[in-house]
User: What shape does this take?
Amino acid sequence: MYKRIFVISLIGLFFIGSAGMAATTPELGRTLLESELTPLDTAILPNGQGLPRGSGSAVLGKPLYAVHCVSCHGVAGKNGLHDQLAGGVGSISGPQPVMTLGSYWPYATTVFDYVRRAMPYHFPGSLSDDQVYAITAYLLFLNGIVDESMVVNESSLPLVKMPNKENFFWQSFDQDMGP
Ligand code: HEC
Assistant: This one.
């Protein structure tokens, strides 16, 4: 009899315990709905996979740059308060490397991805896709990579060849891990 009561009280304790535990979970959040996830899923691969529809040219990008970017990155991407965005081509292997989109970045598609997700610094995500295409075209133009009237869009941007691309080497995972 005592034994049975003991077993019953143990089971009771288990339920009280688990109810108590459920009430004290950190409640960090909930699974996102598909409709909430889609706007956040903006990754763009080097080959352009994930680029949205849209287009722009340097001619259209220049005035947008003047409004949204020049205060931090300077006229024509130089001598600003923050990162230099143009010039420096050929300096990377020298004693004073100047890292810019033209001198360092391997993929033009990454310029679009980065600007869309992170710039302007104080208001990321505020530019439309067409505006980001136009500003990307302008940045590529400032680096002498495309001409002023070239229309940059989801098909043409992945074909743009960046000057420093060949200096990036891919190693397979197996090689990194050793034998
Ligand atoms: C309020 C200042 C500010 C404004 C405005 C701004 N940026 Fe930036 N930008 C920064 C800062 C700071 C960094 C460095 C961020 C870091 O390293 O994490 C940066 C970095 C960048 C880079 C990366 C440079 C590199 O080589 O790593 C790019 C490209 C860029 N900005 C483009 C833009 C464009 C295009 C605009 C306008 C749409 C813009 N920025 C507006 C402050 C700004």
